[in-house]
Amino acid sequence: MALMAAAARFFIRGANSKLSITGAVTGAHSSFRATLLKLSPSCSSRAKTQRRHAAHFTYQPDPVPTQYGPTQKMNLFQSITSALDNTLASDPTAVIFGEDVAFGGVFRCTVGLRDKYGKDRVFNTPLCEQGIVGFGIGVAAAGATAIAEIQFADYIFPAFDQIVNEAAKYRYRSGNMYDCGKLTIRAPWGCVGHGSLYHSQSPEAFFAHCPGLKIVIPRGPVQAKGLLLSCIADENPCIFFEPKILYRAAVEQVPVEAYTIPLTQAEVLQEGSDVTLVAWGTQIHVLREVANMAQEKLGVSCEVIDLQSILPWDIETVCKSVVKTGRLVISHEAPVTGGFAAEISSTVQEECFLNLEAPITRVCGYDTPFPHIFEPFYIPDKWKCFDAIKKMINY
C-alpha cells in the first residue's frame, strides 16, 4: 500500500515534486520503483497525463472489401449502426433495446434508429441488466429477433444467470422444442485509456466456459458489421463484444449493404514462418505492429491470426500455423489467470507438442483489478509482446 500511495502521489504531483519513494519498497518491488524514476524530471504533469491516456497501438485498417458492393467511410460505431439499420429494414420482427439506446446510446451506436423505425422497435429499458437479457430471451423464444445492449461489458454480470443458465441452455432443456437463438447481446468491451475498474474489463473468458453460446469480438469496422450480422442471423444466442477504444479510432471503407462473415472462423492476417501471434479485438493491432518490429529488428517472420470467434474458436487454423512456425504467442487484455489464452495454450500443447520449438507464451493483463493511473504498466503493449518474441527465438 505504501508503494501504491507513493507512486500515485508521484504521478499526480509530477516529477518535480520533492516526493521520495526510497524505502517505500524493497526486493521484487524495487524494479517497479526504478521504472517510475526513469521518467524525465523535466516532464510536466500535463505531458504525463497525455502519455498515460495515449493509445497503446496504431490502428491498421483492412483493405477495402470489393466483394460486397459499394462502400462508405465509417468508423466502428457507424458500422454497427449500419448493421442494425440493415437488420431493422429487412426483418420486421427485429427489435433493439437497452439502457439509453432510444436516443443513440452512450457510444452513439443506435443513433437515428428510433426516429427511422419507431419507438416500438428501438426503445429504452430500465437500468436492470438481468431484466434486459430476460426480456430478450422471451422475445427470441417467441420467434422475434432480439438485439439487447448492455451499456458496458463490465455490467453484464447481473445478467450472468440469465445468459448462462437460461439463454445458453434453453434449447437443451426443452429437447430442441424451444430456443432463443435469435438473441444477440451487444456490449462495449475492453480498455479505453481511462476507464479504470468498472469500464475496462474483458469478460469473454467467463462466458467461454458455457456451451450453448457464441462469443465474437471484431477488430475493426468491416469485421464488426459482417460478424454482427452473422450473430443476428445465427440460430444460437450470441454475445458480441465491441472494442470501445476503436469506436472512433477505427475507420475503414465499409460495404453499405448487408453482408456476413462466417462465425467460428479465425483469419490469418499476415503469413509468417517463425512465430505465430494470436489475439482478438484491439490487441490484433498491437500484434500487427509487433510483427513489423520483429521483422525489422530481429529478422523474424510472424504469422498474425485474428481469432474473431472466442466460442467456438478455430482450433484448426491456429494449430496449422503452430505446426508451421513451432512457436506461439497469445495476447489479450484480460488477466492472465483463467484468461482465454490459457485454453488456447492448453489445446495447442495437446495437439502440437512435437512441433513446438519453445514454450507457448501468454502476454496478458495482470491478476489485479484494472488500474487507472497505472494502466500503461498493465496493458500488454507492443514492447511486452516484442520481448516475448525475442525470448522465444533465443530459447
TrEMBL record:
<dbReference type="GO" id="GO:0005759">
    <property type="term" value="C:mitochondrial matrix"/>
</dbReference>
<dbReference type="Pfam" id="PF02779">
    <property type="entry name" value="Transket_pyr"/>
</dbReference>
<dbReference type="InterPro" id="IPR033248">
    <property type="entry name" value="Transketolase_C"/>
</dbReference>
<protein>
    <recommendedName>
        <fullName>3-methyl-2-oxobutanoate dehydrogenase (2-methylpropanoyl-transferring)</fullName>
        <ecNumber>1.2.4.4</ecNumber>
    </recommendedName>
</protein>
<dbReference type="InterPro" id="IPR009014">
    <property type="entry name" value="Transketo_C/PFOR_II"/>
</dbReference>
<dbReference type="GO" id="GO:0009083">
    <property type="term" value="P:branched-chain amino acid catabolic process"/>
</dbReference>
<keyword id="KW-0560">Oxidoreductase</keyword>
<dbReference type="InterPro" id="IPR005475">
    <property type="entry name" value="Transketolase-like_Pyr-bd"/>
</dbReference>
<dbReference type="InterPro" id="IPR029061">
    <property type="entry name" value="THDP-binding"/>
</dbReference>
<dbReference type="Pfam" id="PF02780">
    <property type="entry name" value="Transketolase_C"/>
</dbReference>
<dbReference type="GO" id="GO:0003863">
    <property type="term" value="F:branched-chain 2-oxo acid dehydrogenase activity"/>
</dbReference>
<dbReference type="GO" id="GO:0007584">
    <property type="term" value="P:response to nutrient"/>
</dbReference>
<feature type="domain" description="Transketolase-like pyrimidine-binding">
    <location>
        <begin position="74"/>
        <end position="249"/>
    </location>
</feature>
